[in-house]
Specification:
By secondary structure, this protein is of the alpha/beta class. The protein has 5 domains: 4-98 and 195-281, P-loop containing nucleotide triphosphate hydrolases (Rossmann fold, 3-Layer(aba) Sandwich), CATH 3.40.50; 112-184, Arc Repressor Mutant, subunit A (Orthogonal Bundle); 296-381 and 547-644, P-loop containing nucleotide triphosphate hydrolases (Rossmann fold), CATH 3.40.50; 384-414 and 451-537, Orthogonal Bundle (PCRA, domain 4), CATH 1.10.486.10; 653-724, Beta Barrel (Thrombin, subunit H). Helix content is 45%, strand content 16%. Strands 9, 10, 11, 12, 13, 14, 15 and 16 form an 8-stranded mixed sheet that branches. The chain has a 6-stranded parallel sheet with strand order 3-2-6-7-1-8, sandwiched between helices. Strands 22-21-20-19-23 form a 5-stranded antiparallel sheet, with no helix packed on it. A hairpin with a 3-residue loop joins β19 and β20 (687-695). α13 (287-297) packs antiparallel against α26 and α19 (437-445) packs across α20. The longest helix is centred in the N-terminal third of the chain and has 20 residues, at 165-184. The protein is globular. The N and C termini lie far apart (89 Å).
Amino acid sequence: MDVSHLLDPLNEAQRDAVAAPPGPTLVLAGAGSGKTRVLTHRIAWLVETLDVSPLSVLAVTFTNKAAREMRGRIENILGFSLRGMWIGTFHGICHRLLRAHPQAANLPETFVILDSDDQFRLVRRALRELNVDEGYWPVRQVQWFINNHKDEGRRAHHLPDTEDSQHDTLVRIFAHYETQCQQLGLVDFSELLLRAVEMLENNDDLLCAYHQRFSHILVDEFQDTNTVQYRWLRLLAEPAKQIVAVGDDDQSIYGWRGARVENMSHFEHDFGPVKVVRLEQNYRSTGNILRAANAVIEHNTSRLGKNLWTAGSEGEKISVYAAFNEIDEGRFVIEQLQDWVGQGHRRDSAAVLYRSNAQSRVFEELLLDAGIPYRVYGGLRFFERAEIKDALAYLRLAYSHDSDPAFERIVNTPTRGVGARTLEAVRMTARVESLSLWQATVQLVQSDTLPKRARSALQNFLELITALGNQLTDLALSEQVSVIIRHSGLIDHYRKERGERAETRVENLEELVNAARRFSFDPIEHEGQDALGAFLSHAALEAGEGQAEEWEDCVQLMSLHMAKGLEFPVVFLTGLEENLFPHQRSLGESGQLEEERRLCYVGMTRAMQRLYLTWAEVRRLHGREDYTTASRFLSEIPEDLITEVRAVTAYPTLSASAAMAANPSDNIMLGTTELRLGGAVRHTKFGDGTLVKVEGQGASARVQVNFEKEGNKWLVLAYASLQPL
């Protein structure tokens, strides 16, 4: 049989993986090394050379898109339809198993799948039935607790009693929720996997039938499997162990949502002896990009080991830009983007990557200012995010009590006991009396129409908004935003959700303070408005402007987690600073730090031709200003692979008279006084501050001053009118 069409398109390592003899095989597939090609050709090899029926092959991946792509490629190779072959996601295949055997799974035939929102509502119902205060036990936190334990293969009865009352309360809610689901025939996403595992473990005949059904199992993105997924794979792969696992331990970046990178090393132990094939030839990036990425990831100790290389060109060196601050960083990126597009490249061939979603705000503003269309990949623009809308609603209602949309949004966010019936009574009163919701609430609070508990909840809300409004008087805009965020309860509300999502929400709220600080209020341009009113209008207009459509040629903005699996000719990897990337919370544990390094590796290997790495010496993020140090990941890249775009230079003393030598007439303004780093200075517009950095010489010298009220600003010395104090 001629199998040249299966092996000829492959390199040596790929052929080794595709034509491996039956048995457990672990394919360590580096970034851009052609893992999908190996998977599809392996399945075709089984069918064409070993006469394996497609119906006895099980192929598992993580997304429906990947499953469709895999099926289409195999059909193109084989030349016939694979309609009966089991190719799908973990959740999809487990759902199929449960539908086929509902009785064995102790489920009704008509069981219903709960999506995340449905599960949220059911958890909330459990809280109410148990008389648990939702304000103290946020539904999202409970939801996370339940799903996390299910992903680890644990049910409520597996969790022992403790002396921790909070933990025991969560277990009690978990148990009640499970009872609800069983009684109503409901299955959430985590339950699909756990229920399928339990069904197979408790039914030997059924498990034996599927051992006979699936003679070969292939799994993609193996490094992203969690505990219960690995347990499910082990069940189905025993006893023949005809399993091929394809993954990359260096790209395991989802530990925060349950992925267990250690499953890759467990595979060799549990299925041994295992044939290990390393796919190290990269077809995406230039030699310099790969060498830099290899150098970074080599600092991780708990890895199986491989070294990416390419037969392609060396390419350009990696550009490292040390920005003055986050604005300077953004401007540099915009300038490089404009230059790239000016060379005839499409905008969507460029991606801006960041560790924290809050970083997107500066890039969004500068892209809008530059008239460059962009899209936040897999996410929302800054002012469209729910937590930002919540904070803005508090600002609007404190600013104008008659804003009905703002009232509706926050009257029970965070939860404060204003139920659906109470809110409907407010709406009805407003309609009948032609009042705003605020006015209707005032009227209801002063009457006996509502129960005392409902009146008290509304009264507390009115008092909160009134107090917030009073605190805003005579404050700078950024301070007004800070007051709202600190005293509205939103930060505590979102922090209780737990996990990465909660942290992102809190970071975005804190970043709103920076957005207000950077907002430029012009009394002429914003005629008839004060600073807060103008800022609220600005936020509404930006949120309403919308992103570029998916089909438009636009720059791609995304978090590093969203970038996995994608590639771009030019990549800007931004915010490479200690405590931001690697993230502050990772620094205490080596395992988390190694995941941060893997995230950096993923970001670097998205770049095909050009890679820019940027960091800011001073960064305003999460509502505060920090003096930063460059990320350790930058120091892990060999110097011969790097081009420093801007050298950082600080002078201990700057002579104002020397700086003015090129423009003697300005000597009258500055005289011959010396400005010293660390010295106090005064600016006619920005007030008093401290001189913290100097760059350049002569009339074009720039100074960085940390002003007491306006924060850090870079000024051209020749025109700054700085006076030493």
